[in-house]
Every structure is written in structure tokens, then in C-alpha cells.
């Protein structure tokens, strides 16, 4: 499958066909991880549950920052 690199604002990008997105199980607004290995690009869907867990952990760490700092001593 060939796609063309296009100008998108100040960046450049590609349009991923709907069939590929469906097979990956992602949709507009979802996050994916881009990895480059040996000159090849790999698109990896982010696990939504993990993203939510990380967000909750960050909020908890911010809320209990002082207590966590004291416990770390």
C-alpha cells in the first residue's frame, strides 16, 4: 500500500486508510506510539487502560507529593 507524504500546517504527514485503522483498532483521537527500527516505521496502538492508569498515578503523585517525599527519605 502506497501513501503520499502531505503538507499539514507546518508539519508533514500521511493519511492512514480507514481499513488499516480498523485493523489496528484505533480511531481519530486515539494515541499511537511511533517507533523507528532499521529505517522502518512502526505504529503501535497505545493501550487506553494503561494511559488512564498512568494519568491516575500522576494525579495521585501530585496530590500526595509531600507524603511521598517524606516516605522516600
Write the layout of secondary structure elements.
Layout: E1 6-8, E2 11-13, H1 18-24, E3 32-37, E4 40-45, H2 48-63, H3 65-71
Antiparallel strand pairs: 1-2, 3-4
CATH class: Mainly Beta
Biggest beta sheet attributes: 2 strands, antiparallel
Largest sheet: spatial strand order: 1-2
Give me the Rg, rounded.
19 Å
Element-level helix/strand string: EEHEEHH
Keywords: DNA-binding
Pfam families: MazE_antitoxin
Domain SpoVT-AbrB: 3-48
GO molecular function, one term: DNA binding
Characterise the protein shown here.
- The mean pLDDT is 89.
- A hairpin with a 2-residue loop joins β1 (6-8) and β2 (11-13).
- The chain has 73 residues and is an alpha+beta fold.
- The chain has a single domain (6-71), classed as Pemi-like Protein 1, Chain: D, CATH 2.10.260.
- Helix content is 41%, strand content 25%.
- The strands form 2 sheets. The chain has a two-stranded antiparallel ribbon with strand order 1-2. Strands 3-4 form a two-stranded antiparallel ribbon.
- It is built from 3 helices and 4 strands; from the N terminus they run ββαββαα.
- The protein has helices spanning 18-24, 48-63, 65-71, and strands spanning 6-8, 11-13, 32-37, 40-45.
- The longest helix has 16 residues, at 48-63.
- It is elongated.
- This is AbrB/MazE/SpoVT family DNA-binding domain-containing protein.
- Keywords: DNA-binding.
- GO terms for molecular function: DNA binding.
Amino acid at each position: 500500500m502506497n501513501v503520499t507524504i502531505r503538507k499539514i500546517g507546518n508539519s508533514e504527514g500521511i493519511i492512514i486508510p480507514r481499513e488499516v485503522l480498523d485493523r489496528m483498532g484505533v480511531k481519530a483521537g486515539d494515541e499511537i506510539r511511533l517507533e523507528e527500527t532499521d529505517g522502518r516505521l512502526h505504529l503501535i496502538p497505545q493501550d487506553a487502560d494503561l494511559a488512564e492508569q498512568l494519568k491516575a498515578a500522576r494525579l495521585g503523585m501530585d496530590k500526595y507529593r509531600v507524603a511521598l517525599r517524606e516516605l522516600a527519605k
